[in-house]
């Protein structure tokens, strides 16, 4: 979903065969709003994991939406129960179209692993660093001198895999590349990170924004350096680790590594801790640390109930001020096992048929599913999540 500035930047230079140019007002603007309303109503019948919706909001220098009408419109859709991601940026050269994607189009820099709208990009391979295990290999405060050689080694792994893909392309085994649907020169070799929260807890005793910033900056700078050395693109993500977060915690416990939880967190705050309010979470996912991340920086706000349109719009403003460029909200959806109705609110029984045989749905990390369809370990983790209660008058 694009606001006026994003639309003009992306399609302003395009011309149809008759010489006319695309217009934002009219069909395009109306269709976007129609689609969001239709998609919400379809989710009353099926959860519809895909597509993952993102609304791209261009900001003024003071952090307010440049297209206030668009921001107000999507806020109303949020009030009605449509769940989507919001991407906010003061420049329009960066687009997001899924829960893990940010693609800066005009610069030869970085992108999230799942690709960007209209750009044949994405990640060609991901190699992940267990940050918690890494920092515990060294005395407190001495991890910095050891991180560079680890990232250099990861880049070698990624470059070796890149050579293999080139061989497959040359052999005609990857026809989407031949057809121009994917451009290997636009793809990224991704350094994934998991267990960063746990690493911070071990090193500093809690969620330390300065620790996050320092750790991610080291990786970012090495990515830039080695990108020139190998003439390929490297990026850095907090990976979703839907399965790996559980595996890393189990492997570490078996090897005597201190693991604070059974599933390593995918965010920069502990989702089970009720002492963090919405603003705290947005601040931790703000510009200071996430400017060194190219993916996986989405701030997930788990809420007991839906926000009003005004509350949602105010969060857009807060995110703009804090530099929280990617965020969303999660309210447990009620799924009736009797009549199949799905309600966007968290309810003890089905509002349509009255049955108390209900399940609940939310995002595992980025993708919407019934909690009963999560893996057993993720079901346990989902049961620990704390849901903030929005303030009402």
From TrEMBL:
<dbReference type="InterPro" id="IPR012833">
    <property type="entry name" value="NrdD"/>
</dbReference>
<dbReference type="GO" id="GO:0006260">
    <property type="term" value="P:DNA replication"/>
</dbReference>
<dbReference type="GO" id="GO:0008998">
    <property type="term" value="F:ribonucleoside-triphosphate reductase (thioredoxin) activity"/>
</dbReference>
<dbReference type="GO" id="GO:0009265">
    <property type="term" value="P:2'-deoxyribonucleotide biosynthetic process"/>
</dbReference>
<dbReference type="Pfam" id="PF13597">
    <property type="entry name" value="NRDD"/>
</dbReference>
<protein>
    <submittedName>
        <fullName>Uncharacterized protein</fullName>
    </submittedName>
</protein>
<dbReference type="GO" id="GO:0031250">
    <property type="term" value="C:anaerobic ribonucleoside-triphosphate reductase complex"/>
</dbReference>
<dbReference type="GO" id="GO:0004748">
    <property type="term" value="F:ribonucleoside-diphosphate reductase activity, thioredoxin disulfide as acceptor"/>
</dbReference>
């Amino acid at each position: 979903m694009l606001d006026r500035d994003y639309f003009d930047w992306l399609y302003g230079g395009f011309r149809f065969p008759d010489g006319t140019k695309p217009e934002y007002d009219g069909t395009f603007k109306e269709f976007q709003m129609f689609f969001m309303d239709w998609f919400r109503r379809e989710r009353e019948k099926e959860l519809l994991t895909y597509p993952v919706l993102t609304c791209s909001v261009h900001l003024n220098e003071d952090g307010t939406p440049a297209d206030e009408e668009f921001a107000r419109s999507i806020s109303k859709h949020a009030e009605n129960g449509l769940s989507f991601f919001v991407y906010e940026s003061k420049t329009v050269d960066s687009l997001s179209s899924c829960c893990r994607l940010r693609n800066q189009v005009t610069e030869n820099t970085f992108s999230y692993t799942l690709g960007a709208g209209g750009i044949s990009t994405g990640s060609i391979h991901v190699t992940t660093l267990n940050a918690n295990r890494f920092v515990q290999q060294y005395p407190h405060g001495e991890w910095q001198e050891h991180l560079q050689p680890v990232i250099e080694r990861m880049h070698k792994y990624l470059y070796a895999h890149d050579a293999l893909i080139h061989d497959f392309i040359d052999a005609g085994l990857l026809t989407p590349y031949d057809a121009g649907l994917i451009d290997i020169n636009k793809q990224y070799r991704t350094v994934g990170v998991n267990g960063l929260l746990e690493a911070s807890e071990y090193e500093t005793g809690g969620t330390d924004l300065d620790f996050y910033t320092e750790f991610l900056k080291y990786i970012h700078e090495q990515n830039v350096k080695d990108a020139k050395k190998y003439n390929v693109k490297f990026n850095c993500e907090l990976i979703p680790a839907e399965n790996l977060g559980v595996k890393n915690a189990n492997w570490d416990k078996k090897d005597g590594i201190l693991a604070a939880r059974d599933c390593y967190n995918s965010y920069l705050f502990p989702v089970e801790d009720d002492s963090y309010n919405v603003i705290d979470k947005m601040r931790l996912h703000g510009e200071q640390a996430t400017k060194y991340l190219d993916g996986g920086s989405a701030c997930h706000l788990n809420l007991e109930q839906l926000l009003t349109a005004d509350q949602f719009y105010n969060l857009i403003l807060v995110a703009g001020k804090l530099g929280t460029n990617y965020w969303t909200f999660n309210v447990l959806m009620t799924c009736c096992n009797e009549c199949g109705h799905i309600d966007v609110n968290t309810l003890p029984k089905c509002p349509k048929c009255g049955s108390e045989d209900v399940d609940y749905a939310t995002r595992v990390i980025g993708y919407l599913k019934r909690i009963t369809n999560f893996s057993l370990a993720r079901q346990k983790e989902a049961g620990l999540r704390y849901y903030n209660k929005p303030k009402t008058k």
